[in-house]
């Protein structure tokens, strides 16, 4: 099946600055290493002809409800449209690469056109890099699993905000059957087989119907 590298929320407001340092459970150096590795994974995917899909978050309290709205209103919104904080960090989409926008939500499958794009391109294997493992990466991977996509998480290209990394990665592996590896090891193991054809997501859904 075809593969896509899904780059999640690699944006300034999630990657750098005092607000991030105050909330992130690791060190600034660890976060810097993770975002650098994610950018390297983008370069490696392009070199191997693997599609890269970008997902970005835009904070907008007007689009939230209930408890989420209450929390959003109590703190400065992050990744406000048009701000430097919303800009991509260490990466830039290349011409032709799709960018999907989450408006005050975690799950990329709530973006307009995200799932449709994957199905149209017959992509059945999603490889995740970006932030944060226990929030937006997990939310999207969970839905991907339930919709029949294969999931791989690049452990050196993501990190958790609240939970220990090993805890959330083990959970994703046990519950979603997610494969966990590093970006270097993935290409070393599979090379051009990242995009090797087999049964695609459209055929899988037809057979499973």
The total strand number stands at: 6
Portion of residues in beta strands equals: 15-25%
Determine the structural class based on helices, strands and strand pairing. alpha/beta
Shape designation: globular
How are helices and strands ordered from N to C? Answer: EHHHEHEHEHEHEHH
Helix-residue proportion: 40-55%
What is the radius of gyration?
16 Å
Biggest β-sheet strands, sense, barrel: 6 strands, parallel
Please state the average pLDDT score.
Answer: 88
Count every helix, treating DSSP H or I runs of 4 or more residues as helices: 9
Distance between the termini: 18 Å
Biggest sheet: strand arrangement: 3-2-1-4-5-6
Poorly predicted ranges: none
């Amino acid at each position: 099946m075809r593969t896509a590298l899904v780059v999640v929320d690699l944006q300034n407001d999630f990657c750098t600055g005092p607000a991030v340092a105050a909330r992130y459970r690791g060190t600034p150096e660890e976060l810097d290493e993770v975002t650098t590795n994610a950018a390297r994974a983008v370069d490696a995917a392009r070199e191997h002809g693997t599609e890269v899909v970008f997902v970005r978050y835009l904070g907008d309290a007007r689009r939230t409800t209930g408890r989420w709205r209450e929390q959003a209103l109590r703190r400065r919104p992050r990744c406000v449209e048009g701000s430097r904080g919303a800009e991509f960090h260490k990466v830039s989409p290349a011409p032709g690469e799709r960018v999907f926008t989450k408006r005050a939500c975690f799950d990329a499958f709530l973006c307009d056109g995200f799932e449709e794009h994957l199905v149209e391109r017959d992509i059945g294997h999603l490889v995740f890099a970006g932030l944060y493992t226990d929030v937006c990466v997990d939310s999207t991977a969970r839905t991907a699993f339930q919709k029949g996509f294969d999931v791989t998480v690049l452990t050196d290209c993501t990190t958790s905000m609240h939970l220990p990394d090993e805890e959330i990665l083990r959970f994703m592996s046990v519950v979603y059957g997610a494969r966990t590896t590093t970006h270097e090891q993935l290409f070393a193991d599979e090379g051009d087989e990242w995009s090797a054809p087999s049964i695609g997501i459209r055929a899988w859904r037809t057979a499973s119907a």
